[in-house]
């Protein structure tokens, strides 16, 4: 398969948009020793005109584990001329050192007023009968509307990239209300997955579980770009443990420095809980989740550069320290994990209202 | 109170913190399968917190020596590689307990040690006993566990036992073993492990049948002509295996457990739910409905046994079965068996199930093939050659797990010519991630109290009842015993096995 192209070598062969199917057939005919596999349509949408090459590399990585028809879309609204360019290629990987399994990739660059032709030109190239997973990169723009959301089965985004998260989450909520079957997967929520698993594992311990109603203090430490992740983690704790706000949720403490904020809750057992969210300038996105009370401390922490989470449980006469697996930080790794886990992500839907309340409080 | 943070995180029953005691801890199974499986679960963060592993064996060893031996093997065989950081934490949970299997005092010390671990862990005293020793010690171990009170769970806790095969060598020994087991542990706490059921494709069998609306309406004698289950091995008696195998044979070693389990998954009715007993109730009905080959004549008509003679496998010369290491030169143990089975139920009336298992066959492969009846040929009978075969659904258990469907298609061209084509699904191609080892899934299930993938007492005994008739016929004195056939190593078995299918107008699927 010849992938030489003077402009975008990573993208493969440039083809006329109207001849994509024909060119794809030719591509496969060139080498019949390879197997074409796809379980999903994976579209990656970006409004960065230079995103195609890096996203093609991302697809090369993702297709090692997830066979798909990949469709890359870059939008350049500011271009003076309306144009649509398309490229095709295949990403091939050896399985068990013998079988070469390939996934098709179609890349589209839409410029100027041609951006309005997204549906007609791009989504007509989905592999039929396979679900569409769309990974949206960057801010949610006007392109994400009801019609757009209706065509997608699984919508992946990273809310840590949003400068106006309240507006964007409002759009997500609208889409979720309009379409019950839509699965949304926020990579910022994925970043906390293994922390949540580790905490849940620690609470499998009867000593920890017995101490849950008497917890008095919660600390979440996060890198400053991942405040949303920290709030989502807190929303999850609040919803799952059944905590109630103690009076008004006060965004208190050290607002002037913007490095810590605190909330007060009441546990099911009537105890008051102080929750502190601490931000730090550097390090991994989520660095510490600690719950303590009645001489019991339960912590999941992550040191910079560590390959594993540290699960820690300390109670009188009882101490436990174990490593736990870690989520990747970068988006491609997180998308890979999301595709592996699948599911309907109903927990995210469940915590969303509480998270949005917290987000509104923090501002 | 249940753990509220577990909700929606993992879609499986939650394994609980426990101590795992492995009897036969210095053996191959512990080093190659059990500990690497537990290690892989630790890597994936699936092990419940505070799990302790106690190896129980006779040899004199310190914790450090035991751990060093485990580490050496784990480096070689672990599915997820060997990570120093995880291992150094994981290995702290492993300890060695030296005792004879027959020494009551050793079990008392074990009980004290487990209590101490429970105290350190701060509460629950869940215990999982894994009997991976030689079968002759099963009784002693179980009796002594009872003697030390280890079979009794403390309040709010559980004590479970995993028993490795063989579950007896015939119905009488299986019943006796089951009596001993059930005198010690309740049936609900007894987990008879059959690692075939932990394999991904075996689990996928129920999904294939009951989550796809297109198959179940066809899954009966109206549409299916025959079903074949093949378990082929290219290995012989390497590594001293001959000693055990020559006492057991293909029928008892593989058919009684693994292959009849696969058969029951293929042939069972839809269970009312996915609970362990819901599924096992339906599986046992299949085994119970097997027509019994209870006379030497019936056995001779429906079962073929054989031994390989010297030949070539993968281009290498190999000895005949009777020349193998630790095999009796006059052995009458079968290294190959083929059976025709009939299931007397409404669904399967008249559909033969053919099972074959053999050592030193041309390649290693386990699969189930479902052969559908041919389409009425009225339209295409007039073509040269007629219809080129019928539809065959193949479920590959190992290696290269997957599913394929053979269909008939027109060859492109101006004339009407038909050829079979294959639609193929490979796990490895579609899902790049490797599946967990069977033991990983099964150990987690036992910690979680989910016995769906373990054999129940009645399943095991019903299977032995069927197998015993055949064994009895083979051990008749004189000319009444059905003959032992021979085939050249590296071929697909004796010609008598081909004849078995030819009588019904069928032939073995070419693998």
Automatic annotation (TrEMBL), chain A:
Where does the Glucose-6-phosphate dehydrogenase assembly protein OpcA C-terminal domain lie? 184-350
The source's superkingdom equals Bacteria
Cleavable signal peptide: none
- Identify the residues that the record assigns to the Glucose-6-phosphate dehydrogenase assembly protein OpcA N-terminal domain, covering every copy: 61-173
InterPro entries per the UniProt record, alphabetical: G6PDH_assembly_OpcA, OpcA_G6PD_C, OpcA_G6PD_N
Q: Which PANTHER family match?
A: OXPP CYCLE PROTEIN OPCA-RELATED
Question: Which species is the source of this protein?
Answer: Haloferula luteola
**Name of protein:** Glucose-6-phosphate dehydrogenase assembly protein OpcA
Automatic annotation (TrEMBL), chain B:
Q: What is this protein's name? A: Glucose-6-phosphate 1-dehydrogenase
Gene Ontology CC annotations of this record = cytosol
Q: Where is the active site?
A: 258 (proton acceptor)
Q: Which UniProt key words apply to this protein?
A: Carbohydrate metabolism, Glucose metabolism, NADP, Oxidoreductase
Tell me which Gene Ontology terms the entry assigns under biological process.
glucose metabolic process; pentose-phosphate shunt, oxidative branch
Q: Where is the Glucose-6-phosphate dehydrogenase C-terminal domain?
A: 206-509
Catalytic activity reads: D-glucose 6-phosphate + NADP(+) = 6-phospho-D-glucono-1,5-lactone + NADPH + H(+)
Mind telling me which Gene3D superfamilies this protein's record contains?
Dihydrodipicolinate Reductase, domain 2, NAD(P)-binding Rossmann-like Domain
Question: Binding positions for substrate?
Answer: 195, 199, 233, 253, 359, 364
Q: Which residues bind NADP(+)?
A: 58, 100-101, 165
Give the similarity note.
Belongs to the glucose-6-phosphate dehydrogenase family.
Recorded hits in NCBIfam families, A to Z, give: PRK12853.1-3, zwf
Quote the EC number.
1.1.1.49
What residues does the Glucose-6-phosphate dehydrogenase NAD-binding domain cover?
21-204
Q: Part of which pathway?
A: Carbohydrate degradation; pentose phosphate pathway; D-ribulose 5-phosphate from D-glucose 6-phosphate (oxidative stage): step 1/3
Q: Which domain of life is it from?
A: Bacteria
Q: Name one GO molecular function term.
A: NADP binding
Relate the protein's function as given in its record. Answer: Catalyzes the oxidation of glucose 6-phosphate to 6-phosphogluconolactone.
